[in-house]
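ERR on first pass: missing label on line 2. Operator R.T. fixed the label and resubmitted. Corrected input:
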Amino acid sequence: MSIATRRSRAGERVVIGALFACAVLSIAVTVGIIAVLVVDAVEFFRESSLFEFLTGTVWAPGQGSGEGGQYGVLPLLNGTLMIGVGAIVVGLPLGLLTAIYLSEYASPRVRGMLKPTLEILAGIPTVIVGYFALQFVTPTLLRPIFGEDRVFIFNAAAGSIAVGLMILPIIASISEDAMRSVPASLREAAFGLGSTKRQVSLRVVVPAALSGIAASVILAFSRAVGETMAVTIAAGNSPKITFDYFTSIQTLTAAIAQTVSGEASAGTVRYNALFALGLALFAITLVMNLISARIVRRFRQVYS
Amino acid sequence: MTVSASAATAELAPSRLRRGATRTGAKIFIDAAFSVLLFVGTIVGVVALATLIWTIVDDGWPRLAADPAAFLTNYVSRLPARAGIKAALVGSAYLMLLTTLFCFPVGVGAAIYLEEFAPRNRVTNFVETNISNLAGVPSVVYGLLGLGVFARFLRLGPSLLAGALTLAVMSLPVIIVAAREAIRAVPESIRLGAYALGATKWQTVRRQVLPAALPGTLTGTILALSRAIGETAPLLVIGLPIVIFSLPNDVRDPVSALPLLIFDWTSRPQPAFAEAAAAASIVLLALLLAMNAVAIYLRNRYTIRW
Amino acid sequence: MTQERTQVSQDEDQHESRIVNIPERRDEIPPAPAEAVFRLDDVHVYYGKFLALRGVNLEIGRNEITAFIGPSGCGKSTLIRCLNRMNDLIPGARVEGKIDYHGQDLYGAGVDPVEVRRRIGMVFQKPNPFPKSIYDNIAFGPKVIGMQPQSMDELVERSLRSAALWDEVKDKLKQNALSLSGGQQQRLCIARAIAVSPDVILMDEPCSALDPVSTGRIEDLMEELKRDYTIVIVTHNMQQAARISDRTAFFTAEAAEGSGDRTGLLVEYDRTDSIFTSPADKRTEDYVTGRFG
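pass 2 clean. output:
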């Protein structure tokens, strides 16, 4: 039924073929990512044990080629999780409050000023946020409040605050979209019964938008897990298993950044360890993104 | 009427409309407190942003203003007072240009195909799902892709070309999404009008849909690129140098980048380097501001209001 | 030019005057078209499983204005879109039966819908000028179909004159078409359709989005256009059909036994005079006298 196929214009077919190639290139990218990660990670697991990787509690690549180092991923997972959870603790309340305010309370003028501000916040490069965490949050906020002995220069709390600030716009804007999609008729029904704005917001709008909010949180968590620079700068490079937010830790991403800075040559255990970490990271974020997308799809069906 | 019912009716008597008729004092307080809480929660984000910018400017401005020309034209140095961002700034500029060259045509091409030509079948759905997944992959993983494929496998090494290819691949999903939205915004009636005149699908796309979708596409592309220019992790993983004393002559030459330099200086213990990092951050933020301003100008001036 | 007279019903019992005024015609219209541009033979149109229109038989005459009238949902727009294969763009749309265009099967193997649309133009209900200059709107069609006129400027001027728009826009050809009024935009769309020298111009409720003054101007325009083109128009406005069309086809929609879906069908097709003054079918009479629809 398509018009183009009937014409014998070879030139147009070539053009459409080129466009098709562009679209399919994205598949090549995914294949490339998976190939690169898997091939070198497999190489790594051949030299160093997969079992130790998954269960070992020490991450110490050692010098040079990295032979004989210890490659347990658990401290890194611990660090990543701490940052992820910490970022959500910072970003979720602030993001959600902002979303409710923007969606239910703010005047169009205020919205017009706040939304660009959120976009600006989202656009600040992560190295700069990292600088802010290291040079302001730790010395001017955390250490004066909690004491210089308690708070290390590099600490997970500063990292969490930094990443939390970066994911705040994600939670705020997706949740706000979800809330605004709630039909006006639902609000009107509640107001008509004499509810206050607070009750309508908390008891009608937020529950109705819950799947969108949940999707935004999962997406934000995934983003927090994948965040590299701010965390490396602010939270340090000390892989350890701990729950203390005032000490320095190391995340999966920071470990990758550190290993690379050490100039590992190709083929060494150190080098291949990079890809094992990358594979773990890719798997975690992929799963979370898929879950989030599934939730978004379902919530769009409900209201479209 | 029973007693309780008449009591209820008395409570809701029409004349009792003033505040407090049914809402108790405690409830009124909670409502007001909630509004305050919302406002505070929103303000915290704004204040944090303001504090961030203030910190950068406060730390970096003295360093930058002391001798801006030197800061912009010096290469890096062991001595923070003499260190400059020349190589990094030029490197970032080259990276941006080359990245755009790679990802704009491919991204727009993919968007046109998916919006105008792709049949609704499983292959198309798979491609679309794949693209949205790629949008969520952490930038450091793109760095690993760049390292393994571009730097090592294609033997490009830590070069301008490898860096640009990596950033291009990373920006691709974002550009595709932006271009698709701009194309979707063109009303169907325009396409129908063109078909009715006997135009083929490609003629319609090329001469009517694309020009109308161009402002939105450009805006989205500029925004995507402004994100790419601030990315450090991919370039770090590929191995782009921080210490370099020459400008690139060829795409296979190594380059530095501004965010890389900021990262390095921030990681050093000397306070003077921290100031330098802040000063470099001001330059980076100014660049971003300029790019976003252009994008917003394009959007406001050239977007067609149907 | 045309004298209006009100036909009084021949029905002694009711003495009701008809709603529609039928202008007196100067030219006599033959009972059947002298030359048929379209010949529709038992045409059915399906959207997927749903039968939208059934059993249409009619001939569209050359250089005549043929009107499709009838209540909403009876397939008038569906049918007109089959005549230039715009229906192909709707997934699941299927035409059965035969539509002949100058003797050729419009849906035959090897027929290119793009070529069809170059010969059979269309004007839509809501004016849809391109977001370009007035000049570029007109020039677009000739350019994409590969017409290479001696002078594009001249072609643009001719098209705009034919659409009775030239005087109003001749000084602002480079201005954006979206700045014109609704009526002007629609005349621009007509000029745009004329620029590719079609054989037929299809109009799907071209005036329903316009004010009465603009509508009147376009109706005058159609009278002139029929000298050079064959025109088929879908309209809800019976007065309009009576005023300008030579032949009228009346459609209605009826539900098939058992199902709730209503399928469109052609009730009656005749010279406009006959349809409005002495319709053969009671359903037609009910419609044109305003008893329903």
